[in-house]
Amino acid sequence: MKLFTWLYDRMILAAAHRRAPWYLGAVSVAESSFFPIPPDVMLMPMVLARPQQAWRLATLTTVCSVLGGVLGYALGYFAVESVLPLIERAGYGAGWHQVQTLYLEWGIWIVFLAGFSPIPYKLFTIASGFMALPLIPFILASLVGRGGRFFLEAILVSRLGPRMQDSVRRSMEWIGWGLVATAILFYLIV
């Protein structure tokens, strides 16, 4: 059995499920504050399954991600002492200290960059609250950063995805195991 091809097929089937948008919204909220899996792994197959709903799905992901970001902000603002042990146990301790340094240097711009990039956004939402970053600029930077990322993904997948779906499926084992090898290599280097 081909592991990654099987997972890919399951994700495409799940993406077409009638409750999939609810799951996408929940994952988007959770990922921005405490959950380790990004919503992209649901957004892309869902857009592939429903390309005509790309804008709606990107909007849902963005709004829910920003709401989760506000939850992360609140955790950082009100409960950072309780959250720090969880951050350490999750293996983000060194990243947490780097984030604090970045805030001192970049301010609100770091929220925008973190929202758009694949680095763990939750560290920046919690750090924003801990550093008492003004809430409105935090929300605006999150909307622009997260929205830019999710809308770009949705547009690319809705336009290019259907044409590439067969070749991606045929290459899924190579892609999957390549990502595993890259993650292991990255872990060993860092």
UniProtKB/TrEMBL annotation:
List keywords of the entry alphabetically. Membrane, Transmembrane, Transmembrane helix
Q: Does the keyword Transmembrane apply?
A: yes
Residue ranges occupied by any VTT domain in the UniProt entry: 38-157
Q: Which Gene Ontology cellular-component terms appear in the entry?
A: plasma membrane
InterPro entries in the record: DedA_domain (IPR051311), VTT_dom (IPR032816)
Q: Quick check: keyword Transmembrane helix in the entry?
A: yes
Membrane-traversing stretches: 57-80, 101-119, 131-152, 172-189
The name of this protein is DedA family protein
From which organism does this entry originate?
Candidatus Macondimonas diazotrophica
